[in-house]
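User: Structure tokens for this complex, please. No commentary.
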Amino acid sequence: MTLTHPTTGHTATADHIYATGLRNQWHPVVPSHFVAPGGMRKVTALGEDWLLFRRGDSTLHMLADRCPHRGARLSLGKHLGDRVACWYHGVEVEGDGTVSSVPGLPGCNLEGKKLVTSLPVREIGGAILAYFGDEQHPEPCELTLPEPLTDPGTEAILCYAEWNVPWRFGMENLLDPMHGQFLHHESHTMFDGDTTAKFRIRETDRGYFFEKTDQRGVNFDWVELCRTGVDWVDLSIPYPPSAGPGGPFGIVGMICPVDAHRSGVFFWRYRNVEGWQRDTWRFLYRTLIEKRHWEVLEQDRVMLEAMPHDADQAENLYQHDLGVVRLRRLYRAAAEQQAAALASPEPAAATAPAGV
Amino acid sequence: MTPWPYLDVHQSRTHEPTPYEYKLAATLEEVFTKEGHELADVIRGLNARQVHAPNGTPWTEDTFRAEMHRLGA
Ligand code: FES
Ligand SMILES: [Fe+2]
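Assistant:
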């Protein structure tokens, strides 16, 4: 038996899930400011098209971009404050996906039915996160936010960019700290340190560290993969003395699988600063540092966008790639498991919510 | 259609920095490098370089805090 996505007809194979992002967890979508109060925005995420719309009071909704009548794009429709009207025949859909009105045929039995997929959303650190469940897991899983984005003594500034890169390549790049020493050697923060290293994997209760055994605090020397309802990485890179007090800057990184070939990358640069130190860092960041950080990010983009699509099919890996191998195994296994659960007649997972 | 890709170098700015802001930022980097990271070091370093507040007066800790808050908040 093959199950298909209720609205798009996509077969949820392991390959499809692996290519377009794991289900049953939260993912970042776009920065919050992409959707102004009273505004709408069409976005693609996990290989599907969505409509984000925000009410005047800032409440945000995320709907499948597909009219329940004949499938027209709701994103071409009209924002009616707390609902959207499809441009084609005027059907009105509320933020939770309920059809509130069929203007052409009042009393039509579509009215009052919840016919459009609506995703739970949260906003954190200037970004929109959404929960992407499959048919068996429509209720959002628990979400623990990255501490650097919630700690009062930590100041985080978001940088968002869109890359023509599969999400997995983006994640693998983050679990590959050694590229900092080479790709980013000509940068303001990653010029220092040894060009040889030994790495180890250290398990944590939320993921794992991939770290150098012989150097810390000099370059991009460690990274932690954290799976806390949303997948993110934490890492730290030293600042030169010119950046002032507060020590190194950290990065919380997340990636939105847009579709099989594109990603939205979210990098929060954070620093443990408060008061005048915070203000001064933000001033320097805006005026001078942000551009330097951007140039480093562009090196990653250029390298990753030029990777052959089948780059991971013919590799010769060495010790520095253990973090990547581990990541791939983890994601591949999760994709297989999710596809298998969807294909089996009974919900396979003991954690499946009741009533599915 | 939503444009793709979004690639914006400057996402944290509210305006293009003024010549004054560029000069202040560059001098701060020099001061942090040569003088230190304490607030007293910064005030001394800026005043020694005659990079003053917009009204031309030497910095004090209070005026510097207030200006950084205005520019960095
Ligand atoms: S397709 Fe949207 S109202 Fe008909
Ligand atoms: Fe990089």
